[in-house]
Each structure stands twice: as structure tokens, then as C-alpha cells.
Amino acid sequence: MDKFLLQQQVLERLAEDLLQAEQAVRAAHETATHEENIAENKYDTLGLEAAYLATGQARRAEAIRLAMANWRRFRPRPYDAIKGIQLGSLVCLVDSDDKQQQLFLGPDGGSMTLVSGTQLVQVISSEAPLGRAMLGKCEGDEVSIQVAPIRQQFEVLRVL
User: Are the beta carbons of 110 and 123 closer than 8 angstroms?
Assistant: First the structure.
């Protein structure tokens, strides 16, 4: 798997997200400022609600811009067994049911699934509990996280 191609997929996905967020900002702003939505009494809050929505969408767009900047500056390095898993590592974990998952430890954001060949790759940040737990680990090491009342354990199969 090519980490640089994965990075490009992340940037493309973030660009799509940014476009959608900017469109949402414009739509909410137009609703907030449209003359038909001027409040006629204290219970007429459509314009105010749209203004709040526009502010939230603008914050979301700014967060996406920041994530894009972080991903553009990011330079994934080859795995160094002395340092263990670091930012930029591509990790294959296996759980107790022998279910494997591919994870790409990135500088920002998560909840993004990419496709590399026939495999799905989950992007996670080093701020995520699993990302933090993996830092410094090597192939063959155990990774353990607590999710609500359940303790999940994984073994590091491969690192690139």
C-alpha cells in the first residue's frame, strides 16, 4: 500500500467535505438574511436559527481547512522498528476473533475509510484512543483500549 496515495485520497475527501460545508454556509446565510425571514415577533426565530447554523457551518469549514493544511504538510515516513508505530504508520491489527483491520495513523481527523486495492483502510488520528494506544508499539505487540465497559485487545500484525 502506498501511503502517499492514501494521503491524496484523504485530501480529495477533505476537499469534497469543504465544498459541501461552504455550500451549507452559503445556504444558511441566505436563509438568515432573506427578507422573508425577518422576525416579526419574539417567537419568529427562523432567521436567528439560520444564523446559528451558518456560524456552525463556517466553523466546520474552517476545521476542514485546518485539517487539509495539516495533511498537506504531512510527510509519512517508512516504519522504523526502533521508534515503533508513529504518525504516518500504516498498521494491520487483528482482534481476538481473528478479524483484521488496516489503520492509517494521520495528523488530523478520522472517521474516514479509504480504499487501497481491495482493502479498506480506516484513517485515525494519534488523538484517538486507539491511535494513542498504538504509538510506540511494534509488530507482535498487544494494543489494548477500554471502550465503555469493554476492554478491546488487538495484536499488531504488520506495520508499514
Answer: yes
Pair 121, 93: CB distance under 8 Å: no
Three state DSSP letters for 15-80? HHHHHHHHHHHHHHHHHHHCHHHCCCCCCCCHHHHHHHHHHHHHHHHHHHHHHHHHHHHCCCCCCE
pLDDT confidence of residue 119: 92
Backbone phi and psi for residue 19, each to the nearest 5 degrees, phi listed first: -60, -45
Predicted pLDDT of residue 41: 66
Question: How far is residue 97's CA from residue 86's CA, in Å, rounded to a whole number?
Answer: 26
What's the pLDDT score for residue 54? Answer: 84
Grid cell 476473533 in the structure block, residue: 97
Please list the ranges in the chain whose pLDDT falls under 50. none
